[in-house]
Amino acid sequence: MMTKKTESKIGNPQFLRVLVVEDSEDDVLLILRELKKNGYAPEYERVETPEDMANALSGKHWDVILCDYHLPRFSAIDALAMIEKLNIDVPVIIVSGAIGEETALDCIHRGAHDYIMKDNLARLGVAIARELEKKEIRTKRIQAEEALCQSEEKYRTILERIEDGYYETDIAGKFTFFNTALCRIWGYPPEELMGMNSREFTDQETAQKIYSAHNQTYRTGEPGRLFDYEIFRKDGTTRYVQTSFTLIKDSAGLPTGFSGVARDITKLKILEIERQEGVDRLRKSLGATINAMAITVETRDPYTAGHQRRVADLAQAIAVEMHLEDKRVDGLGLACMIHDLGKISIPSEILTKPTKLTNIELQIVRMHAQAGYDILKDIDFPWPIARMVIEHHERLDGSGYPNQLTGNDILQESKILAVADVVEAMVSHRPYRPSLGFNEARDEIFKNRGIFYDAEVVDACLRLFEGKRFSFEIVKHEDPYLVKRRS
User: Fold this and answer.
1) Which of 210, 279, 294, 355 is least enclosed by beta carbons within 10 angstroms?
2) Contact between 185 and 239 (Cβ < 8 Å)
3) Does 248 reside within a domain?
4) From its phi and psi, is residue 297 left (phi > 0), alpha (psi between -120 and 50) or beta?
């Protein structure tokens, strides 16, 4: 009974290249007739000597080899040996007359795929179809394996060429795979690096941080963020590395380890440290310069010695209370330290006069805001220092000086400086009057809240004093540039 597959072949014969190792032309004709009955359109070549078979194998591609067991100068055993030597993947079916089962099994052991008796050729078509299907499966598997090998080789080549280190670890954090770059960064040969974990090349604190970061990824499945830490190389030197990592899972979705990329950032870290040291030096130099300017003012007006520093302390505390950025708080502190710099242009007898100033003398004193601005305007500060100095006597309603600015035309830092300046001046002793006390100062800024002084600034100032979180008496001056942070 013909199968559907066979019927379809008869309607549309399947081309088949057949190498027949046979000394009988009649037997070949019987084989070809059987192949055609099974839906094949055979193209064949008959060989009966070793030389003919070698030529046939080297010159053409064959779909199947049908081989008699006994030939005058050749045998199936010789043919199988030749095929094995040439490493050719072609199904070989033994087609013979008188062959015992033991002999047939020996042929199978030597590489034959099946054996058929010549008096039972009806099996030939099914046997060929089965072996061709097996060969197609083998071919696809080999192609897949070759593609996989090529992919792995390409993957490995990429990993070996990149400058960054690539690594894989087990769940315990021990290295199970890494590229050459990682060995170069860590400073260990591959055989020593294999199996190491973070406890062996970092300090205890860093190892705990690495463990916590990996544990977070293990629990959530989310990739690990960029993580910087210091490692100790085999030669005792250190490196700064930056790593990111992800979770490795098996086919069942269960975590098996971690994979990550590590970059040597030692040079960048050193540059960052050197840059910060340079910034710190400039910061100290700038602070010293500002302090020298402040001292210069105080030598001209000894009665107000410490006024600028106290104003700076209060202004920065207000700015922190208002949640200004740290950099703005720093700039405000520096401006406060020299906000009266322009007084060096005012005659000493006016600055130190113990009685009330005349209108003309008052106008001269008021020139100090503009004078301070003129001194500072061409200095390239990273903050608007000169603008804060010229605006510290401006008022929201335009009644201030020197430019009668109003509302949003006044810098926020200038508004803070104005309140701090008024409060400090009123609670401090002056040549022409004793201290008015904090109650008077509080009443002044509260009464003129939103008129002369910014409401938000006034509220922040009052909260500091009423909550006893600021006092001029407890301020310590260790560094004129140090920004005080009060919670």
Assistant:
1) 355
2) yes
3) yes
4) alpha
Q: What is the CA radius of gyration of the chain?
A: 47
Q: What count of other Cβ atoms lies within 10 Å of the Cβ of residue 237?
A: 10
Distance CA 51, CA 43 (A): 20
Q: What is the DSSP letter of 357?
A: P
Contacts of 30 (CB under 8 A, 6+ apart): 118, 121
Length of the chain: 487
In a domain, 483, yes or no: no
Q: Do 339 and 316 belong to one domain?
A: yes
**11: which 2 tokens?**
């309607």
CATH number at residue 172: 3.30.450.20
pLDDT digits (tens, 9 = 90+) for 436-475: 888 898 899 999 999 999 999 999 999 998 888 887 753 3
Question: The whole model's pTM is what?
Answer: 0.47
pLDDT (tens digit per residue) in 394-433: 999 999 999 999 999 999 999 999 999 999 988 887 766 7
- How many folded domains does the chain comprise? 3
Residue 367, both tokens: 């020139």
Domain range enclosing 295:
272-474
Going by C-alpha positions, the residue among 171, 217, 198 that lies closest to residue 262 is 198
